[in-house]
Specification:
The structure holds two protein chains of two kinds. Chain A is an alpha+beta fold. In chain A, 28% of the residues lie in helices and 31% in strands. Chain A has five helices and five strands, in the order βααααββββα. Chain A has a five-stranded antiparallel sheet. By secondary structure, chain B is of the alpha+beta class. The two termini of chain B are 13 Å apart. In chain B, 30% of the residues lie in helices and 32% in strands. The longest helix of chain B has 24 residues. The chains are: A alpha+beta, B alpha+beta.
Amino acid sequence: MTGDLLTFEDFPAGKEYPLGPVTVEAQDIIDFATEFDPQPFHVDPGSQQAAQVGGLIASGWHSCALLMRMMCDSYLLRSASDGSSGLDEVRWLKPVRPGDTLSGTSTVVSSRLSKSNPKRGIIIFHYEVRNQHGDVVMEVSGSGMVATAAAAQERAAAAGDRP
Amino acid sequence: MSEKAIFELLEPGLVQNLGSHTFGREEIIEFARKFDPQPFHLSDEGAKKSHFGALCASGWHTLSVWMRLNIDNGRKELERLCGQPIPADTFGPSPGVRNLKWSSPVYVGDTITYTSTLTGKRKNPKRPGWGMMMSHSQGINQNGIVVCAMDGAVTIRTQ
């Protein structure tokens, strides 16, 4: 049994999964950027570089990480996900600023069984992330791998996860 | 005053050596707890049930470390390649990245060495004084296997 696990069959073309909301505070922006992207406009609201972009803005990599978290919370953690081998494009369209509340949509563009491993499906997704004003702040196109229902059942049985 | 704008000195093919990072168990789990809590990024037990087989880093963690090393070493590398200092405000935000590939997992203890190769530059006709620098970046593990790659762009002053 795979219980309520989402599998390849749950991601047909056109299917949409809502993302978020998640609110980003100034300290979140500074904490992420201090570790991974310590440019002045990401870590120092009083810097000249921040002034040039209208104040503190989140690292684009922080926005990506938040998109990932929203995907996990929306559907990935209750799916037979096998990860992703890559993304075609990430577009940072508008800055993410302190206090912004992000939400969005994962839309299945197409899905097919993997040619090299038919126990797995390849899902082409388009992700859109918006702020509280409805502005699209980030668009992402890419793919994810999800096990088929049959493969997920086999895997659960092998792991001894019987109900 | 003989220094040219760094933009003028950039030539496709220049390779920035951004340095290396060894991914520890704790940092892999800490990043995943915050941003990518899938079982194969949180524990060996969870990973054994997946096709990864062992705990591995979130792809976003792998690329976020690229960003950090790019900040720490990228400008220094460009200064070395161009032979002159680069002002702190030379670079602006990035419009995005393309062709992100996570071609092989990054496991606990793997040391990833990152490079960025300049692939092009252009002036922005709509924004005098600014342009774009394009590059191809990749991370290679201690066995010579490419684990991540992407094509990036960043805004840059042209004068």
